[in-house]
Write a structure and sequence with these properties.
Shape: globular
Largest sheet: 7 strands, antiparallel
Distance between the termini: 81 Å
Strand content: 35-45%
């Protein structure tokens, strides 16, 4: 009996040691993964700034004002990204009933709220820090209007869909601010809207593979983020100024789009005395023809002509438009 008990104790001790070893190795793997993601020495090819564009004001919708970052003459598109606006809207201005086909819209609220409703009966409001990831697919008609008095401010990004996905059924993914994963390391904080950073991952499914990270850096902080080498990437500076790519570069200030060259990671430093906030967005290029007619994005002119006909005659995805108006 004693020998059996001793054998059992020995076996139990070995099992405990084995489990402890596994946990320790797992912890080391986690730490190593985080370090490789945030350590600039792990980049084989650091991404450098190839172009910067100041986002200028223009009118959109019904009385709304946007700073267009992508989708203007300076930066027409950046595969797979079709457009990005920083919008500011107060009642009674807004974005009344309008259609989409062939791509996705990502709306990220920075201040205030936007109420959305569409012809399929979906309705809701996103507030500061919330995200709506809408796949328009074969067709959506919707409105986006300010949810309250005062300034309502946010970002809207258009992401192209591949030819095989352009006519899929519409769908929504919505994340409340408190449900967006976040992490902080050495004065750098990230909110992971899509993709992965600092060892945490967003639950958002990106049909066109993409990452969307909201970084806030305290003065003298820095961040080093891996980006898939085959993807196109850019940053948009919301507040403050930052040094992108190499430490000795000139700081770039708010409201600029920073187009990044090839590489497997980006380094950013906040050398100022004020906080820096920027979004880093990257995606896998589709390398397909793009034919755009306003809110319709297809691959050929024939498909655009068909889309216009579908919209005008309320068919092939636009059936519910015939008797619908937002309210």
């Amino acid at each position: 009996m004693r020998a059996a008990a001793t054998a059992a104790i020995t076996s139990h001790s070995v099992l405990q040691l084995f489990q402890t070893s596994i946990a320790s190795n797992r912890d080391r793997i986690i730490v190593r993964n985080i370090m490789s993601e945030t350590d600039p020495t792990s980049f084989t090819r650091p991404r450098l700034v190839t172009k910067k564009v100041l986002a200028k004001h223009q009118r959109e919708g019904d009385g709304a004002v946007v700073r267009r970052c992508i989708g203007r003459s300076d930066l027409k598109s950046f595969d797979p990204f079709l457009m990005m606006d920083e919008f500011t809207v107060s009642p009674p201005a807004g974005f009344p009933d309008h259609p989409h086909r062939g791509f996705e819209t990502v709306t990220y609220m920075l201040q205030g709220g936007i109420t959305h409703q569409d012809f399929a009966g979906h309705k809701g409001t996103i507030h500061t820090g919330d995200v709506q990831w809408m796949t328009a697919g074969r067709g959506i008609i919707h409105s986006e209007m300010p949810a309250g008095e005062g300034v309502n401010r946010g970002l809207q990004l258009w992401i192209n869909l591949s030819s095989q996905d352009k006519m899929i059924e519409p769908r929504y993914q919505e994340l409340l601010s408190e449900d967006i994963p976040s992490a902080e390391q050495d004065g750098a904080e990230v909110r992971v809207i899509a993709g992965e950073s600092m060892g945490i991952r967003s639950p958002v499914y990106t049909r066109t593979p993409a990452m969307y990270l909201d970084f806030s850096l305290r003065p003298r902080a820095e961040v080093h983020q891996r980006v898939p080498e085959s993807w196109n990437a850019f940053a948009y500076i919301l507040e403050g100024e930052g040094v992108f790519g190499y430490q000795n570069k000139t700081p770039i200030s708010a409201n600029h789009v920073v187009v990044l060259g090839p590489g497997d990671g980006l380094s950013v430093w906040n050398k100022s005395s004020r906080p820096l906030r920027f979004v880093l967005i990257a995606g896998q290029p589709l390398n397909e023809p793009v034919v755009q007619y306003g809110p319709f994005v297809m691959n050929t002119q024939a498909e655009i002509d068909q889309t216009i006909e579908d919209y005008q005659y309320c068919k092939n995805g636009f059936e519910m438009a015939k008797h619908w108006r937002s309210h």
